[in-house]
Design goal:
By secondary structure, the protein is an alpha/beta fold. It is built from 19 helices and eleven strands. β10 and β11 form a beta hairpin. The model has no long low-confidence stretch (mean pLDDT about 90).
C-alpha cells in the first residue's frame, strides 16, 4: 500500500510541476511579446527607432527587477498570482490604445480649446503648456513599459513560491526549473512575435496576448481551486476581462486608426503593418475642380505626395539616365512604390532589376486591393511592375547586391531610392562598403544616382553621403538639389567610375530627347549650383563606414536641430 501511495503522490507532484512549468513558459512568451510589442509600436510612432527600442527594453528589464522585489510583499502567492494576471491582461490589451489615445488627445487639444472658446482663427493656440502636454504624452509608451515590466517581474517569484508551498520538502531545483521554463518560453515568444505578430496590428497583438494571460489565470484557478480565496469573484473577473480583450481585438485596430488619424493633417484612408513598417495613406479633397491629394507615409514619415512626387522622381532618375553612355540595363535599389521604375521605363531599357526589402509594400503598389485604397498609386506608377522587362528581388540590399555580383551582373545605370539613414540598419546602405558593391555592379561608362536627404536641413548628412561615395572608388561625384514642396529643399548625389563627371556629361548631353518629365535639361543643369560656401569645411566631414554610424548620427543630429 505504501508503494502505491508513494506512486500516487509522485504522479500528483508531477502533474503540478507540469502545470506550473507550462504556465511559466507561456507567461515568459507573453512577457517577451509585450516587450517587443511596446518597443516596436513606440519606435514607429516616436521615430528615433534605435533609441526608442533600446530605451523601452531597458526600462522593462529594470522594472522587472523592481517587480521581483515587490513580489515579496504579496502575502498570498495564489491570490496574488491570479490578481496579477488580471492586471497584466488589462495593461497589456490597453497599452497601445492608451498611448495612441493620449498622444492624439495632446495633439488635438489646442484645436479643441480654440473651438470651445470660439477664439479667432488667426490666434495661435500652441506652444507653451500645450507643447509640454504633447511632450508628456510622448512619454506614455515609457510609462506603460515600466508598468508592464513591474507586473512581468512579479510573475516568476510568485510561481516559485506557489511551487514551494505545494511541494514542501519534496521540492528540488526550484529556481533552475522555473528559470529554465522562463528562458525557453521567452524564446518561443520571440518566434511567435517575429513569425506572426510583427505583421499584425499592435492593438490586436496586445489583445491576443492578454487573452493568453486570462486563459492562464483561469487554468490556474481551476487547477488550484481549493487554495484560492475569492475564487468565484476572480473567475467572474476573468470572464469580464476576456470579453473586454475580445472587444479590443475586434475593434482595437479601428480605435487605434482613429487615434492615429487625428495626428495626420489629412484624412487617413488606409493603414496597415507589414513585417517591417507601418504604411499609412492620407487623402485631402481639393474640391470638385481639383484632384484629391494623396500622401504616402511610412512609420509616420512622408515618403511622397501625389501632387509633387514627379519632381522628386524625375530629379532622381533623369540625370543618371542622361549621364550614362547606355541605358539598356538598370538597377533600382529600393523604390518599392514603382515611381522611379515608371520614370526609368520611359527610357526604353532592355531590362530593369528592382531590389526591395518589403514584399508587402511592393504588392501594395502592384496589385489592386479589394477596397481599391491603392488605386491612385497604381495609376501613378502606370502599372510599372507589370512590365515584362522588370525583375524584382526581395531582401536586404546588402546581401542581394552580393548575389548580383556573384552572378556577374553589370548595369548601365544604378538608382538608389532608399529612405533617409534614420535607422542603424540603413546606415550600412550609405557606407563605403555598400557603394563599393554598387561600383562593382556599374558599367565603366555608367552612372550612379543616390537619394541624399536635404542639403538644407541635413547639410552634414548630405555632404557625408557624397564624400562616402567618392571614398568607395568612384572617380567623380557631383551633388545637386531642387525644391520638392512636400519635403523642402532636397538633394541627390551622382557618380561615375571612369571618364567625365556626370555634371560634364549632362552639360554636353546630345543623346535622345528626354521623355516627358518634370525635370528639363535646363532645370537639371541649374540644380548643380549651390550657394556660397556651401561646400566649405569639407575636410571636417567624415566618411561613413559600415560600423561607424557616421551618417546615422549626422542625420539624427541634423534633423533634431531642425525640430528643436
Amino acid at each position: 500500500m505504501s508503494e502505491v501511495a508513494d506512486r500516487k503522490e509522485w504522479v500528483s507532484r508531477l502533474r503540478i510541476d507540469v502545470t506550473l512549468v507550462l504556465i511559466t513558459g507561456i507567461l515568459a512568451g507573453c512577457g517577451l511579446i509585450y516587450e517587443y510589442l511596446l518597443s516596436h509600436y513606440a519606435a514607429r510612432v516616436l521615430g528615433a527607432v534605435e533609441t526608442v527600442i533600446f530605451t523601452i527594453i531597458s526600462l522593462m528589464i529594470v522594472s522587472m527587477g523592481v517587480g521581483s522585489f515587490l513580489s515579496a510583499r504579496v502575502k498570498d502567492p495564489f491570490l496574488g498570482f491570479v490578481t496579477l494576471e488580471l492586471l497584466m491582461a488589462l495593461a497589456g490589451s490597453g497599452a497601445v490604445l492608451i498611448c495612441s489615445g493620449l498622444m492624439a488627445g495632446a495633439f488635438i487639444l489646442p484645436q479643441v480649446l480654440s473651438d470651445t472658446l470660439n477664439l479667432p482663427g488667426g490666434l495661435p493656440v500652441q506652444g507653451g503648456v500645450f507643447a509640454q502636454i504633447e511632450t508628456l504624452a510622448g512619454y506614455s509608451p515609457y510609462v506603460m513599459a515600466c508598468l508592464l515590466g513591474v507586473l512581468i517581474g512579479m510573475e516568476i517569484p510568485l510561481i516559485a513560491r506557489v511551487r514551494e508551498f505545494l511541494h514542501a520538502r519534496h521540492l528540488r531545483h526550484n529556481i533552475g526549473t522555473i528559470y529554465g521554463a522562463d528562458y525557453i518560453g521567452a524564446g518561443i515568444g520571440a518566434i511567435v512575435w517575429v513569425g506572426w505578430m510583427l505583421s499584425i496590428d499592435p492593438a490586436l497583438a496586445g489583445a491576443l496576448t492578454a487573452m493568453m494571460n486570462l486563459l492562464i489565470g483561469f487554468v490556474f484557478i481551476c487547477r488550484f481551486y481549493t487554495h484560492i480565496r475569492y475564487r468565484e469573484i476572480l473567475l467572474a473577473a476573468h470572464g469580464l476581462f476576456f470579453v473586454l480583450a475580445f472587444i479590443i481585438a475586434y475593434h482595437g485596430t479601428n480605435w487605434q486608426a482613429i487615434a492615429e488619424g487625428v495626428m495626420y493633417e489629412d484624412k487617413v484612408v488606409h493603414q496597415h503593418d507589414t513585417s517591417y513598417q507601418r504604411l499609412v495613406v492620407t487623402k485631402r479633397d481639393r474640391g470638385p475642380e481639383g484632384r484629391p491629394l494623396y500622401t504616402f507615409h511610412i512609420n509616420g514619415r512622408v515618403q511622397f505626395t501625389s501632387h509633387d512626387e514627379a519632381i522628386y522622381h524625375s530629379m532622381l532618375v533623369v540625370p543618371a539616365m542622361m549621364a550614362s553612355a547606355r541605358r539598356e540595363r538598370v538597377l533600382i535599389v529600393g523604390g518599392g512604390d514603382g515611381l522611379a521604375l515608371r520614370d526609368v521605363l520611359k527610357w526604353n531599357p532592355q531590362a530593369v532589376h528592382l531590389l526591395d526589402l518589403d514584399e508587402e509594400l511592393v504588392r501594395f503598389f502592384q496589385t489592386m486591393r479589394a477596397d481599391r485604397s491603392n488605386a491612385p498609386f497604381i495609376e501613378m506608377n502606370k502599372q510599372a511592375f507589370e512590365d515584362p522587362r522588370v525583375a524584382i528581388s526581395y531582401g536586404d540590399a546588402w546581401l542581394t547586391t552580393d548575389q548580383l555580383i556573384n552572378h556577374g551582373k553589370r548595369f548601365d545605370v544604378i538608382i538608389v531610392d532608399l529612405p533617409d539613414p534614420s535607422h542603424p540598419d540603413l546606415n550600412k546602405l550609405y557606407s563605403t562598403a555598400f557603394y563599393t558593391k554598387l561600383r562593382n555592379l556599374l558599367a565603366a561608362d555608367g552612372a550612379l544616382a543616390v537619394q541624399s536627404t536635404s542639403p538644407y536641413h541635413a547639410r552634414r548628412t548630405f555632404l557625408s553621403i557624397g564624400k562616402t561615395i567618392s571614398a568607395a572608388g568612384f572617380q567623380h561625384v557631383d551633388q545637386y538639389h531642387t525644391n520638392v514642396p512636400s519635403f523642402g529643399e532636397w538633394g541627390w548625389s551622382i557618380a561615375t567610375v571612369q571618364g567625365k563627371a556626370a555634371r560634364e556629361r549632362i552639360g554636353a548631353y546630345s543623346g535622345p530627347d528626354l521623355p516627358p518629365a518634370w525635370a528639363t535639361v535646363d532645370v537639371i543643369r541649374a540644380s548643380f549650383v549651390f550657394g556660397r560656401d556651401f561646400f566649405a569645411g569639407m575636410d571636417e566631414i567624415k566618411v561613413n563606414k559600415p560600423r561607424s554610424g557616421v551618417v546615422y548620427r549626422y542625420h539624427q543630429q541634423d534633423w533634431n536641430d531642425v525640430t528643436n
